[in-house]
Every structure is written in structure tokens, then in C-alpha cells.
Design a protein that fits this description.
By secondary structure, this protein is of the alpha/beta class. The protein has 3 domains: about 25-50 and about 300-390, Aspartate Aminotransferase, domain 1; about 75-275, Type I PLP-dependent aspartate aminotransferase-like (Major domain) (Aspartate Aminotransferase, domain 2, 3-Layer(aba) Sandwich), CATH 3.40.640.10; about 410-525, no CATH class. It has helices spanning about 5-20, 60-70, 80-85, 85-100, 110-120, 135-145, 160-165, 190-200, 225, 255-265, 265-270, 275-315, 330-345, 375-390, 425-440, 470-485, and strands at about 30, 35-40, 40-45, 105-110, 130, 150-155, 175-180, 205-210, 235-240, 250-255, 325-330, 345-350, 350, 360-365, 410, 460, 465-470, 515-520, 525. The longest helix is centred in the middle third of the chain and has 38 residues, at about 275-315.
Length: about 525
């Protein structure tokens, strides 16, 4: 049982999160190909993922893992220094080194672990670490874990970094660590400036290239390759979980540093090895990125150019560079409202709030994938226009509302208040007729049952209403159900007949149908098999 003092602490934290609009919940999604996810039955175009090359749903990666599982089983069964290192791990580290153009590499369980394992081993008490103010949480934790003196400089302020380096003690070692492409802000570092400072002050320069690895550069070697200095970078950390569509992390380095980490990195030494099947999947992801990466990167760059151009033309400030585009809104509640409005248009754009970003600087983080299409980009821009009008209270104005795509099986609608267009007098009459038939009364001649024909899927009418065409008996049942939901006084106990109606005497196979127009509300209209 949780002690009272701790329970009070948890309650107070929950209250503060709620008051500040900072509460978070885990959302359960069903991931689909082509940059889509299902939230319940609603299909959303996913502009929130890190799947930059669209490889997360590539079946070749899954098949590579399945083949390895069939041959080696799943788990490694131990830490890397005991029994956990397999031939597959060895092959993977060779593939990483080749892909990044380094002498060696060492893989970790995640990108977070790679930063912890590298920084905490390379620096310690008496050393000084210099970290960008907007570095990833894993870098912040790694610097703290090292036990060294941590100096934080303003985001990309290299003049301040120079001052801090000049004021630091020359007795200990110096280590500069930074993201190369910042995961939220979407901007990049100046590698040449950092290299110059590192050389001047004999500091070791470490780049976390997680969001640029395999995405930027002619060979996918990240920001340093774009800036033509990749051969001069001492150490790079990155992950398999972004553009490579898999999971795990690595350090690309020299053989000497790899040997040091094998003997000194506690997260490496005291963790079980990466599952063999996962290592095999990562090898396949690297193979695809090597063979097809340039084509995927060119497609991604084209989509990014289109999106940035259209967002700016629509009056939005598209910050950052490359495939991560932050739209700053400031207020946390406003960011939530924007995200909800976009979601109602079928676009998944996650709001970034404190502590991911500083308080009062909430933003919408748009990330583009090579799995997206030009149509996805146009729909997103249109959705942003509509969301802006909703947030500002202006309505949709002249912007044409484009309906979010839904799965064929189900169409969800959101507001029961729009169901007022139903003719309930007609509903009552249909229900009375159905009850009369069930009780053995005479059937109305215009509703004589005919052989049932397959029901048609609901179609969206131009006016934004759903048109449902069904055989008479089905229309009565569904209409009665809707009427009972909205008007309990219309509820009836007996069930309508479920058996198929008999054929008419004239042998005509046509079925008399009634067309019912229903505006979208909180009702599910299911497609009949």
C-alpha cells in the first residue's frame, strides 16, 4: 500500500498537471501501411511519427526478423560480455560502421541507452561537459549520470559555448555533446563552428544524429555529411527506431573507443544483449537504406518542400529545417485544441507541451515521411486552415471542409445534435407497420416484402450528409434504433423480424427501398455484409 505522504504527493502532481493542461494519456493505435493509423475506427494520416523513410511497415524487415527467429530463436540469453553476442550482432555492428563510414560501431538496446552508455563512460568527476539547452532528454540524463561538471549553453549559441569553454578548468577533459537535428525544433547545428571550438579547446565532440541518420546526406550519414564534414566527426550516436523503422541504438566510432566502451560502459556491460531477431531486422533495414535510401530521401525532400511552401502561403510560420516542421502556438490549451481540430479532419499531429518544450512555447510538431503522398500534404494544409478558423472562433469561412477518410466498415460521426433532420412521425408510422406485421395484421401493399438484396455501403452526400439505402425491414430496424436513442418515448419492446422476407408473388427480384438521409452524429452506420 502506498504511504499517505506519497499518495498526497501523487494527488498534488495530478492536480497540477490537470490545471496546467499538461496531463498525458497513452493512446492505443493500430498502425497501418502508407503513413496511416487507426484510432478506434477512424483512419488518420500520421504526421507525428519518426518513420521518415516509411520503413516501419516494410515487410522485408519483418521477414528478416522471422527468418532469424526460425534459425536462432528470439532472445540472446545473456549480456554481451557473457553469452549474448551472436554472429548476427557482430554482422550488425559491421554494417553500422560501413553505413556511417567509421572504423567500428557498438550497438545498444536503444538510442537512449547509447547516449547513457557513451557519455557516462567517457566523462566523470573533474571533467566538464558542454550541452546545448535543447538537447534530447537522454543527453541531459547522460551528462548528469557522468558525475562531471555540466555547462549548458543557449540553443545554438556558439559564442556562449566559446565563453564557457574558455572559463572551464584545463585540468579535466572537455566533452561537447549536441543533437545534430533537433527533434522538436527541427533546426540543425553548425558542424564547422563546433569542430573549430572542439579543436581549439581539445574537446571531444559527440553528435546525436538520431533524427538525421539515413535521412540526410548523399549516403544518409546525417547533418555532418550535408555540411561536408562527416570525416572529421569523432563520435556519433543514433538509433534504428527513426528512419530505419526498427528499434535499438548505436555508437559509430573508432576501434579504440569501441574497445574502451566494451570495458567501461555500464549500460552496455550490465544489460542483456539485443534480441537476435531484432539485430537481423536492423541489418535488413540498413540494407534497404543503402540500396534505396537516395530515392526515398529525394521523395521525402520533395514532399517537405511542397508542405513548407503551402503552409507559408497559407500564413503559417513553418520553422525548422528538413522534415521536422514545428508550428508554434504558445499556449498549452491552444495546442491541444489545434491538435483535436486537425484530428477531426483525419490528420494526426501531436501537440508538444512542457516538459518536452519550455512552458508557454507549446507547438504542433509536423513530421513528414516518404510514405506520405502529395494528396496527404494538400489535405494537411487544408486541415490546418480549418483548424485555425476553429481555434480563432471564425468558423470554416471559405475553406471547403474535406471529410476525413474512414475505414469502409464503419463511419463515425461526432455530434448527435445534427440528427434533428430525422422525420420522427415517419419513424413512428414505420414502427407501427412493423409491429402490425409481426402481430399478423395486414401488410400495407406498398411495403410488401421482396427478396432481400445486399445493402449498399453508406455514401457521403455533397451536403455532408450520409445517405443510407436499405431494404424496408432493415430501414425500419435501424431507424427505430436511432429514434429510441434520441427519443426514449418511441422505444418499443418487441424485436423486428430477422428472417429474410419471402419472394413476391410476381417473382420480381427487385426490393422496394426507402432512402433515409441522416446528418452525421454520434451514431455508427455499419456497412452490411
Amino acid at each position: 500500500m502506498i504511504p499517505q505522504r506519497w499518495q498526497e504527493f501523487l494527488n498534488e502532481q495530478r492536480r497540477q498537471r490537470t490545471e496546467q493542461n499538461l496531463a498525458r494519456k497513452i493512446r492505443i493505435l493500430r498502425h497501418q501501411p502508407a503513413g496511416r493509423v487507426l484510432l478506434g475506427s477512424q483512419e488518420l494520416v500520421n504526421f507525428s511519427s519518426n518513420d521518415y523513410l516509411g520503413l516501419a511497415s516494410d515487410l522485408r524487415i519483418a521477414e528478416a526478423a522471422a527468418r532469424a527467429a526460425g534459425r536462432y530463436g528470439w532472445g540472446a540469453g545473456g549480456s554481451r560480455l557473457v553469452t549474448g553476442t551472436s554472429v548476427v550482432h557482430h554482422e550488425l555492428e559491421g554494417a553500422v560502421a560501413k553505413f556511417r563510414g567509421t572504423d567500428a560501431a557498438l550497438v545498444f538496446g536503444s538510442g537512449y541507452h547509447a547516449n547513457l552508455g557513451l557519455v557516462s563512460a567517457m566523462a566523470g568527476a573533474g571533467d566538464t561537459l558542454f550541452s546545448d539547452a535543447l538537447n534530447h532528454a537522454s543527453i541531459i540524463a547522460a551528462c548528469r549520470l557522468s558525475g562531471g561538471d555540466v555547462k549548458v549553453y543557449k540553443h545554438r549559441d556558439y559564442d556562449e559555448l566559446e565563453r564557457l569553454l574558455s572559463a572551464s578548468s584545463p585540468k579535466g577533459k572537455r566533452l561537447i555533446i549536441t543533437d545534430s537535428l533537433f527533434s522538436i525544433e527541427g533546426d540543425t547545428i553548425d558542424c564547422a563552428r563546433l569542430l573549430k571550438l572542439a579543436e581549439r579547446f581539445e574537446a571531444l565532440l559527440v553528435l546525436d544524429d538520431a533524427h538525421a541518420n539515413a535521412v540526410l546526406g548523399k549516403r544518409g550519414r546525417g547533418v555532418a555529411e550535408v555540411q561536408n564534414v562527416s570525416a572529421r566527426i569523432d563520435l556519433v550516436t543514433a538509433s534504428f527506431s527513426k528512419a530505419l523503422g526498427s528499434f535499438g541504438g548505436f555508437v559509430a566510432c573508432s576501434r579504440e573507443i569501441r574497445e574502451f566502451l566494451v570495458n567501461s560502459s555500464r549500460p552496455f556491460i550490465f544489460s542483456s544483449a539485443m534480441p537476435i531477431t531484432l539485430a537481423a531486422a536492423n541489418i535488413e533495414a540498413l540494407r534497404i537504406a543503402t540500396a534505396e535510401g537516395e530515392t526515398l530521401r529525394q521523395k521525402l525532400a520533395g514532399l517537405v518542400r511542397t508542405l513548407r511552401t503551402k503552409l507559408q502561403a497559407a500564413g503559417f510560420e513553418a520553422k525548422g529545417e528538413h522534415h521536422i516542421i514545428p508550428i508554434v502556438v504558445g499556449d498549452e490549451q491552444k495546442a491541444l485544441t489545434y491538435s483535436e481540430a486537425l484530428e477531426s479532419q483525419g490528420m494526426l499531429v501531436h501537440p508538444m507541451r512542457f516538459p518536452t518544450v519550455p512552458k508557454g512555447q507549446a507547438m504542433l510538431r509536423v513530421s513528414v515521411s516518404a510514405a506520405h503522398t502529395d494528396d496527404d500534404i494538400y489535405r494537411l494544409v487544408n486541415a490546418f486552415k480549418i483548424a485555425r478558423d476553429k481555434v480563432s472562433g471564425k468558423g470554416t469561412g471559405k475553406v471547403a471542409r474535406r471529410e476525413a477518410k474512414r475505414p469502409d466498415e464503419t463511419m463515425e460521426v461526432l455530434d448527435d445534435s445534427t440528427m434533428t433532420g430525422l422525420n420522427f412521425s415517419e419513424v413512428q408510422a414505420l414502427m407501427a407497420e412493423a409491429l402490425s406485421v409481426e402481430a399478423g395484421g395486414d401488410e400495407p401493399t406498398d411495403l410488401a416484402p421482396k427478396p432481400a438484396a445486399p445493402a449498399e455501403a453508406p455514401e457521403l452526400a455533397p451536403s455532408g450528409t450520409a445517405t443510407i439505402v436499405k431494404p424496408e425491414t432493415e430501414a425500419q430496424g435501424d431507424t427505430a434504433s436511432s429514434a429510441e436513442t434520441l427519443h426514449p418515448e418511441l422505444a418499443v419492446d418487441p424485436e423486428l423480424p430477422k428472417d429474410d422476407p419471402p419472394s413476391g408473388a410476381d417473382g420480381d427480384s427487385k426490393t422496394v427501398r426507402r432512402t433515409q438521409r441522416v446528418k452525421k452524429g454520434q451514431t455508427r452506420i455499419h456497412k452490411k455484409a
